[in-house]
Write a structure and sequence with these properties.
Chain A: GO terms for molecular function: cell-cell adhesion mediator activity. Chain A: Residues 1-24 form the signal peptide. The complex is a heterodimer. Chain A is an alpha+beta fold. Chain A has three helices and 17 strands. Chain A is elongated and about 140 Å long. In chain A, 18% of the residues are buried. By secondary structure, chain B is mainly alpha-helical. In chain B, helix 8 crosses helix 18 and helix 9 (147-189) packs across helix 16 (331-354). The longest helix of chain B has 43 residues, at 147-189. Chain B is globular. Classes of the chains: A alpha+beta, B mainly alpha.
């Protein structure tokens, strides 16, 4: 073999072996703070996320922060050491944070910091009133990272029962931060009650209850009949009271000519009697 | 003798007319029925939200329901008055109450918006029209010296019941759904039947008794009877026409603040709660104004017509001041002007009806009130869209409020052209017709007496 060919092969082999090291040397290194867990006791204290660009072969253009895949506005800066401060951390502020460094001649570099919290249920109905036979929709919305798993239960005072779907009328749809419980064709005997949605993730769980009331079709009839009865009784009382007082009223009123005649003859008789008795 | 008793009554109502007694019971009945008519109409907003959701119609289409109801109530007022003149008030009011309740009960079964127009709008509106004017006229006939106070107390029910009904209707809708709530409301409206039952059937010695005995069955006589029931002859009398015109002008501007004050407050830069509070404050002083004005008018320090002119002019001035006060940006100024406006507008409502018997006499009051309601309502219908149009053209509410405020002031000026306006005492109410009646009655009684087979002592007893 030619001695030049062997040398060439060795150089290529070494070059290939060394390439990862070299490119590793070229890749920018970012020093990022560890993941943070937001708890109830730390809720007032501000949280600071830090990213430091330690090594980079080309000067970076700028850096910015992203949360859950969307850029956070007003975080673009040209510093190597960039921080993002969450002043009053709530469950809402948890998520996957990324500090991104942009370069002119190289692809972006980023580091991920996870901020985890217990889920917080932000939206649910306190009560739902539906008629018999209609469909009810109960929902719960949450904020928090990581996304929770949802369960629905029925609450009876202090005891919890899982939802009995033997009738096949219950449908649960779960998405990341949202869950929906649909009940079709409400049954007035079994369905009313308190329903609880429970959101659980690695850090903890929360739950909220919704009261479901089912209105019977006949429910308004009773007050209606009661009011009708009251009115009939009132009218009867009024008419009877008046009939009993009626004879007195006739004497006082100005009656048309016909009755007048009777009055005058009565008066005439009275006058005669008075004259005879001589007051 | 019983015949002589009629003369003092015709000579001076002030002294001999009824006042109190059964009148207070009728006042309570008027209180209840007015709240079930107007208080109910004003609180239907809760249902409209439900209708928009259920029937999937625009809120404008749904608001036509209450417009139809109000229009029907005012349109059928003369009919109610005429029926009272022809038959008796008790029957008319009980029928009206039944129709009002029936309309709401039928509405609970509606399957489309047109059904609601027909039931809640036309049928209930007809019922309300048959109830309001007869009840008001009956109460007014049962009071003389305390008439205005009675009216003030009765009309205060509108404001009070609007306050009470809004949360009540909300509760009913939540517990029973809108169908059940309408059913129960229909039942509650039937209470008007009980109120109507309280009206004691009284003889009425007024215009309709002037039926010509000769041509009883001819067409012309029928028309004459109908027109006398409707009191159409009033339309040819100058004092009545002047007064109706004045009240119509008042009506054109009167409702504008109720429709536009909240929007105007928001536009002036105040928050939703501040704007809503302004309305509530005006509503509260409205109730106060009705009662106070009624009490004060009955003290007889001033003539009713003068007090009415005063309140009307003040109301017009305060309506005009409303946009001016918010120009300065001061919330306190806006609230103060609204309070004053509310007081004046309530004050004039008590008096507006009480003046009518002073112009046309107690006997023709029923028909007069009916016609007045019909004519003034058409002016009211024109006034509010006009103010909306002005706002659309100019971009703010300054022009609408200015124009709206000028209407009551024009009304005051019109009132000043009433006969005997500038005298210090009330002129005697027109008694020509009733005197004729009494004369005819006397004559026919004498004839009856003469035709009796009795001795001459009967005639000497006269």
């Amino acid at each position: 073999m030619h001695p030049n060919a062997v040398t060439l092969a060795l150089v290529v082999l070494l070059g290939n072996l060394m390439l990862p090291f070299v490119s590793a040397q070229n890749e920018p290194k970012i020093n990022a703070s560890d993941q943070t867990i937001l708890t109830a006791d730390t809720s007032g204290k501000p949280v600071t996320l830090q990213c430091n660009l330690t090594t980079a072969h080309t000067p970076h253009k700028e850096s910015f922060w992203m949360k859950n895949g969307h850029e956070i506005p007003n975080t673009r800066t040209e510093q190597r050491n960039t921080t993002y401060r969450i002043t009053k951390p709530r469950a809402d502020d948890s998520g996957e944070y990324m500090c991104v460094y942009t370069f002119d001649t190289a692809p972006n570099a980023n580091a991920t910091i996870e901020v985890k919290a217990k889920p917080d249920i932000t939206g649910h109905k306190r009560s739902e009133n539906k008629n018999e036979g209609e469909n009810a929709m109960l929902y719960c919305k949450s904020v928090g990272y990581p996304h929770p798993t949802w369960t629905w239960r029925k609450v009876d005072g202090t005891s919890y029962t899982d939802i009995d779907n033997s009738t096949g009328r219950f449908f649960i749809t779960n998405r990341d931060n949202y869950t929906e419980l649909n009940i079709l064709n409400l049954d007035i005997n079994t369905d009313p009650g308190k329903y609880e949605c429970n959101a659980t993730n690695v850090i903890g769980n929360t739950a909220e209850t919704t009261i479901l009331r089912v209105r019977s079709h006949l429910a308004p009839l009773w007050p209606f009949l009661g009011v009708l009865a009251e009115i009939i009784i009132l009218v009867v009382i009024i008419v009877v009271y008046e009939k009993r007082k009626r004879p007195d009223d006739i004497m006082d009123d100005d009656e048309p000519v016909g009755t007048m005649k009777t009055n005058s003859t009565n008066n005439h008789k009275d006058k005669n009697i008075r004259q005879r008795n001589t007051k | 003798m019983t015949k002589v008793k009629s003369n003092p009554e015709s000579r001076s109502e002030e002294v001999e007319g009824p006042d109190g007694g059964w009148g207070w019971v009728l006042l309570a009945a008027l209180f209840v029925s007015t709240s079930l008519v107007f208080g109910l109409m004003r609180s239907l907003g809760v249902f409209f939200v439900e209708f928009v959701q259920y029937f999937e119609e625009s809120s404008q289409a749904v608001s036509w329901i209450s417009s139809t109801g109000l229009a029907a109530q005012q349109f059928f007022s003369p009919l109610g008055a005429a029926l009272c003149n022809a038959y008796n008030a008790r029957l008319v009011v009980m029928t009206g109450g039944f129709l009002a309740g029936l309309g709401l009960i039928l509405a609970s079964q509606a399957t489309c918006l047109a059904h609601l127009y027909l039931t809640m709008g036309v049928i209930s509106g007809l019922g309300w029209g048959l109830v309001f004017t007869p009840m008001v006229a009956t109460v007014m006939a049962n009071f003389t010296r305390r008439r205005t106070l009675a009216l003030g107390l009765a009309f205060s029910s509108i404001g009070l019941s609007s306050f009470a009904f809004n949360p009540l209707f909300q509760l009913l809708v939540e517990m029973y759904a809108w169908r059940g709530a309408l059913l129960i409301l229909g039942g509650l409206s039937l209470n008007i039947v009980a109120c109507g039952a309280l009206i004691r059937p009284k003889q009425r010695s007024e215009a309709p008794a002037k039926v010509d005995p000769d041509s009883r069955s001819s067409c012309v006589a029928q028309l004459q009877r109908v027109s006398s029931y409707l009191e159409l002859s009033l339309l040819f009398e100058r004092p009545y026409v002047t007064y109706t015109l004045a009240i119509s002008l008042l009506n054109a501007g009167y409702f504008v603040p109720y429709f536009h004050l909240v929007a105007h407050s928001r536009q002036a830069g105040f928050s939703e709660y501040q704007a809503a509070f302004v309305m509530s404050a005006a509503g509260a002083t409205d109730i106060l104004g009705r009662v106070v004005s009624g009490w004060f008018a009955d003290l007889r320090h001033f003539r009713l017509i003068h007090l009415l002119s005063l309140w009307t002019a003040l109301a017009g001035v305060f309506i005009m001041l409303l946009p001016v006060s918010s120009l300065s940006g001061s919330y306190v100024a806006l609230v103060v002007i609204s309070l004053l406006y509310g007081f004046c507008s309530g004050a004039l409502t008590s008096l507006a009806f009480a003046v009518v018997p002073l112009i046309v006499g107690v006997e023709r009051m029923m028909g007069a009130l009916g016609l007045l309601q019909l004519i003034e309502s058409s002016a009211g219908l024109l006034g509010t869209p006009l103010s909306g149009l002005l706002k659309d053209i100019t971009g703010n509410y300054m022009a609408s409020f200015m124009v709206a405020g000028s209407f009551p002031i024009l009304g005051t000026l019109t009132m000043a052209t009433l006969p005997h306006y500038f005298s210090c005492t009330d002129p005697p109410p027109p008694q020509r017709r009733s005197l004729d009646d009494k004369d005819k009655g006397l004559n026919s009684e004498l004839e009856q007496m003469n035709s009796l087979p009795s001795d001459t002592s009967n005639r000497s007893a006269e």
